[in-house]
Write a structure and sequence with these properties.
The chain is an alpha+beta fold. Helices cover 27% and strands 39% of the residues. It has three helices and nine strands.
């Protein structure tokens, strides 16, 4: 919508300031707009990925991040109160990870319910019976998450960003939007 308003403004300016026909003015506006969209596509390519992993999660990692997330499957696809969620995931590790941290934020509307850092090596050990370091290559895991029954109705937004502790290079970033 923000790009549409300047395009309308430009169309109005062309209408009042030039002797071109309406069709010619419209063609100029469309050419300008397509140039803007081409720049946004290039900017998006430079910044990273934005692909859907499942009905609630998106991978918004940078292309040079350490993890290349292949998939995250969620069952059931639409999480429900008091129903456990089963997650399976596959990623390709591009560089060795000796120690890593993840920050997880959960918001309900504008309220931040959780903003916490997790030691990923401890999480691997306690939840998946794996240890750090994690070497290059594929890593696959499955985990079950209990969903409490007292969750209020509405939209919840989750943002998870992970990084390698030694150099703070980003491992990956996932966004999720869930409605209960």
């Amino acid at each position: 919508m923000k790009l549409f308003i300047p395009a309308l403004f430009a169309l109005g300016a062309l209408h009042t300031s030039s002797g071109l026909s309406f069709g010619s003015r419209l063609q100029l506006v469309v050419q300008e707009a397509s140039g803007i969209f081409d720049m946004l596509d290039q900017l998006s390519d430079d910044m990273g990925k934005n692909h859907t992993l499942n009905p609630v999660m998106r991978d918004v990692s940078h292309t040079d991040d350490i993890l290349d997330i292949k998939y995250v499957d969620i069952d059931p696809e639409a999480p429900k109160r008091s129903t456990p969620i089963h997650l399976t995931a596959l990623a390709h590790v591009k560089e060795r990870i000796d120690k890593a941290t993840a920050n997880v934020k959960v918001k309900y509307g504008f309220l931040t319910l959780l903003n916490r850092n997790y030691d990923l090596c401890e999480e691997l050990k306690s939840n998946l019976n794996r240890t750090c370091p994690v070497d290059e290559g594929p890593i696959e895991f499955a985990v079950d998450v209990d969903v409490p029954g007292f969750i209020p109705p509405g939209w919840f937004h989750l943002e998870a960003t992970a990084w390698r502790d030694s150099d703070e290079k980003q491992l990956g970033r996932i966004l999720a939007d869930v409605k209960f």
